[in-house]
Structure to design on (420 residues):
């Protein structure tokens, strides 16, 4: 989970992700941040995230992002 | 088939400083989305100028004769005026006969497929004439230069495609879907009769995500559009191939609308399309020009091949409306297929 928070901080250093319960709802990341994050996740975990899974609900918390990585075959 | 792009080329690297985002993050998007160069028309250029530039090139080089034209279909989101339409403007400036039908269709990303489908129907009734389909857009004029989500990918351009009946009985498969309930995902809110452009609608505002745009500017809900494409297009392609009685392997070229490299790669992976059969470089080299994207990606990648040989091609487009569609056709042995640069 810390690895994901670190990636999010790299994308949006101005935000405090630890205090948010919904990154999308709170406006911490937008669709282009999600694309950037996907690229980082795919490189780090050597996975390919299915396009149909690229929906806001899978990126609104670090837990959900980690679950998506696992679903995509990543070891996290 | 003729593609027309403006000569003014802008580099993404030079624009990074315009955006209110960390440079490192923005440059990562360059790699993922394929941002690199895009062609932007001059502020006083209009969509009809590109249409005329293309038509005059064709007439001057004897690609087509005025007397052969039965109809002009202009597909655009960028009318010169509310009245008259661009097809009528082109008709007048070229001095075409009074029996040449003029039709304008307001369509965006699917504009090439919609224009072709209308041409096919018209050709049922004009057996000996040719129908000219013109896709022309200058949407950069409606995109904020401080909107990192929309400006780096936009490009201006046009295409002229001449369609005529053939003597063989090969079929063209075409499938189109629309969902107006999701139309707000791609919108220019002001400028029409519902919300006329005023000094108020021109005020640039921070949208809260680091981008700046006004109600006069185009806005895309990136997440909604991306998800729409990934959910709707793969089953559309499967259904089209099933209707044709073919598989992905039978297609030589997948010539798709060009929103960005990331979206196309995900779509190709999902549908089992080899990357080498699907050119994805229009945003990288010219920008996304909306309705002319399919002919422009065609002429900029495989023009020589289409003159020499014939291929089974799959066109697919998806975007504003929302609309999504596909077409499978044999294409090739073209008398002319070229990309030209205009001073517009």
């Amino acid at each position: 989970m810390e690895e994901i928070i670190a990636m999010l901080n790299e994308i949006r250093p101005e935000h405090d992700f630890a205090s948010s319960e919904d990154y999308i709802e709170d406006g911490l990341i937008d669709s282009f941040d999600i694309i950037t994050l996907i690229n980082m996740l795919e490189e780090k975990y050597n996975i390919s995230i299915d396009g149909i899974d690229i929906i806001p609900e899978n990126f609104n918390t670090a837990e959900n992002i980690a679950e998506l990585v696992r679903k995509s075959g990543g070891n996290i | 088939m003729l593609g027309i792009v403006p000569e003014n080329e802008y580099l993404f690297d030079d624009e990074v400083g315009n955006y209110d985002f960390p440079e490192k993050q923005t440059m990562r998007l360059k790699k993922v989305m394929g941002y690199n160069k895009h062609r932007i028309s001059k502020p006083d250029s209009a969509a009809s100028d590109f249409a005329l530039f293309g038509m005059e090139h064709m007439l001057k080089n004897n690609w087509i004769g005025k007397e052969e034209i039965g109809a002009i279909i202009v597909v655009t989101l960028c009318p010169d005026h509310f009245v008259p339409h661009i097809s009528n403007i082109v008709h007048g400036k070229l001095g075409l006969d009074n029996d040449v039908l003029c039709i304008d269709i307001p369509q965006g990303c699917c504009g090439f497929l919609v224009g072709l489908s209308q041409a096919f129907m018209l050709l049922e009734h004009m057996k000996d004439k040719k129908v000219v389909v013109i896709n022309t857009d200058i949407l950069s004029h409606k995109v904020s230069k401080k909107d990192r989500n929309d400006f780096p990918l936009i490009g201006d351009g046009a295409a002229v495609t001449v369609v005529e009946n053939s003597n063989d009985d090969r079929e063209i498969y075409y499938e189109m879907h629309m969902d107006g309930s999701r139309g707000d995902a791609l919108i220019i809110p002001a400028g029409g009769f519902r919300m006329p452009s005023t000094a108020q609608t021109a005020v640039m505002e921070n949208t809260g995500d680091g981008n700046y745009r006004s109600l006069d500017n185009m806005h895309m809900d990136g997440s909604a559009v991306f998800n729409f494409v990934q959910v709707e297009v793969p089953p559309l392609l499967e259904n089209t191939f099933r209707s044709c009685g073919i598989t992905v392997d039978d297609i030589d070229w997948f010539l798709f609308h060009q929103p960005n490299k990331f979206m196309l790669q995900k779509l190709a992976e999902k549908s089992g399309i080899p990357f080498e059969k699907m050119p994805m470089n229009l945003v990288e080299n010219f920008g996304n020009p909306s309705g002319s994207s399919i002919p422009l990606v065609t002429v900029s990648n495989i023009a020589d091949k289409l003159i020499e040989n014939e291929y089974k091609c799959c066109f697919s487009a998806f975007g504003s409306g929302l609309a999504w569609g596909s077409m499978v056709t044999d294409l090739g042995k073209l008398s002319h297929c070229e990309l030209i640069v205009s001073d517009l």
